[in-house]
Amino acid sequence: MIVDADCHISPLKEGANISTDELLRRMDRAGVDKALVWLTPPYRREIDESNAYVSQAVRAHPDRLLGFGWADPRLGVQKAREMARRCIHQYGFHGVKLNGAQNDYFLDDPKLSLPLIEEIARTGKLLAFHCGVDAYERTHPFRIAKIARQFPDTRILCVHMGGVGFPDMSKAVIEMAQECPNLHLVGSMVLHTSVLDAIKTLGAARVCFGSDTPFALMHVCVAEYHALLDGELTPQEKAQVMGGNLLRLLGLPA
Prior knowledge:
Blueprint: E1 3-9, H1 20-30, E2 34-39, H2 47-60, E3 65-67, E4 69-70, H3 77-90, E5 95-98, H4 100-103, H5 114-122, E6 126-132, H6 141-150, E7 156-163, H7 170-179, E8 183-187, H8 192-202, E9 207-209, H9 218-229, H10 235-249
Parallel strand pairs: 1-2, 2-3, 4-5, 5-6, 6-7, 7-8, 8-9
Helix pairs in contact: 1-9, 3-5, 6-7, 7-8
């Protein structure tokens, strides 16, 4: 089974946005069975509307789509908490994602983001963080590692594992993940050599396939992962990376 750990959908039509139906079409073309979905830019406007759209998509296609929420503390810590509560308790999402790059804040800000992180951590759901060189300081791996140490029982997805540009921060991400067993890496928009390095260093159980659809072509990303992993991993290890790891983290059967 192939599960894409990084997909975006939106009710908006302009720009790179894609609808639920378009995502399903791309999944069928790529041979992807399930996808973790969260909202698409713009990341500050209409977050509530977009989270609701993700919820509707998941309800309509529960066998294909795995919902994940979004909250922005820049809109106010209390409002962000309410966003997170709605995502988890009303929509039943598997967790909430924070993006300090798009929403312009430091992930470990003690007054802005940590109160929101505490709110999410109390639920036992997953946290996801954008981690990339497009916002080197705000989303640096050492900030995510600080959070991982502060909340050792919270499972954390490190999306892009320091990529989204060159040179990437993947080596720092891998080192931080060695120290923090609750960090799990999503290898979307990052060098293939970095993905393989992470697997060889951390083990196949700590890395998840992701495409970052629609910002990358899902069928091409799947083909690249097949080419990358064949001959490097056992069939069981490859199955973990391509979907089994994410399903396990979400508490779902493979």
